[in-house]
Write a structure and sequence with these properties.
There is one protein chain. By secondary structure, this protein is an alpha+beta fold. It is built from 4 helices and 7 strands. The strands form 2 sheets. It has a 4-stranded antiparallel beta sheet, covered by helices on one side. A 3-stranded antiparallel beta sheet has the order 5-7-6. Helix 1 crosses helix 3. The longest helix has 14 residues.
Length: about 110
């Protein structure tokens, strides 16, 4: 995905400034959180495997026992949960990976 700027579910991603905003509120993200959220926003409602996320975001080989991805997902979830007006979230899909849910009706399950 080489677009410099795109929108998805109320979020605006600006790759030139490495900023993501929701309802004109710029999120305070680390570089890893930015890369995770940008990837998830480019493919919302799609399950992304832990292996794919690690390879694309961390740019290193996947190690199944490495929990650093889970730590970054937890921090990103907290930031998304704090956004006024955002009812979605990051859903864990057991034995598969993570999925960014933008639709509030889909997000009402177990996030």
């Amino acid at each position: 995905d080489t677009e410099l700027r795109f929108t998805s579910g109320g979020f605006t991603v600006n790759s030139a400034t490495r900023e993501i905003a929701f309802a004109n509120h710029v999120l305070n993200l680390t570089s890893i959180e930015y890369a995770l959220l940008r990837l998830m926003l480019s493919r919302p409602h799609e399950v992304l495997s832990r292996e794919e996320l690690v390879k694309q975001v961390f740019e290193r080989p996947f190690r199944p026992l490495d929990r650093s991805l889970d730590m970054h997902i937890l921090r990103l979830r907290r930031k998304l949960d704090a956004l006024p007006g955002f009812d979605g979230g990051i859903k864990t899909v057991r034995s598969s990976g993570y999925m960014l849910v933008l639709d509030p009706l889909l997000a009402r399950g177990d996030l």
